[in-house]
Write a structure and sequence with these properties.
With 153 residues, this protein is an alpha+beta fold. It has a single domain, classed as Gcn5-related N-acetyltransferase (GNAT) (Aminopeptidase). Helix content is 25%, strand content 32%. The chain has a seven-stranded mixed beta sheet, with helices on both faces. The chain is globular, with a radius of gyration of 15 Å. The relative contact order is 0.16.
């Protein structure tokens, strides 16, 4: 079950710290892109956790970049809960949340070396795009995009 939670909530901070620790093993710190200082309080950011059997097993966020366009951020499933399809369920849930709030295009940045994440995003219909925003200068970034609903609606 997907549940909206403040990114400042203690449970959210624990998940973000776990994700950052895991990424530290594959990405130099200067090329890790998480939530910026004060961003947790930004109304354009909606942070969600995934509950399963009374445990918080993962998270993901949507940050509006411009009207109709949002960025998928901080998508993470804890290691003991991986390989159960929860990443796909989380991604599909975030896509539904985005579409329901008028988002027609989702963008994301991931590390090209995170092969399982890249495979998930590609299999879900995300396509590679040129790096955007703060990711332009990162040699570790792979940016993707997916159109959720027709922009003519």
């Amino acid at each position: 079950m997907l549940r909206l939670l403040s990114a400042d909530h203690p449970d959210a901070r624990v998940l973000i710290a776990e994700l950052d620790e895991e990424l530290n093993g594959s990405t130099p710190k200067e090329h890790m892109f998480g939530l910026h200082e004060g961003e947790a309080a930004d109304p354009r950011l909606r942070f969600f956790v995934v509950d399963l059997d009374a445990s918080i097993v993962g998270c993901g966020a949507l940050r509006e970049l411009e009207p109709g366009v949002a960025e998928l951020k901080r998508m993470f499933i804890r290691k003991p809960f991986r390989r159960r399809g929860l990443g796909r369920v989380l991604l599909e849930s975030l896509e539904r949340e985005a579409a329901a709030s008028g988002i027609h295009t989702l963008k994301l940045e991931t590390g090209w070396m995170l092969t399982e994440a890249v495979a998930l995003y590609h299999s879900a219909g995300f396509q590679d795009i040129p790096a955007y925003g703060e990711y332009v200068t990162s040699p570790y970034s792979l940016c993707m995009q997916k159109v959720l609903i027709s922009s003519s609606r």
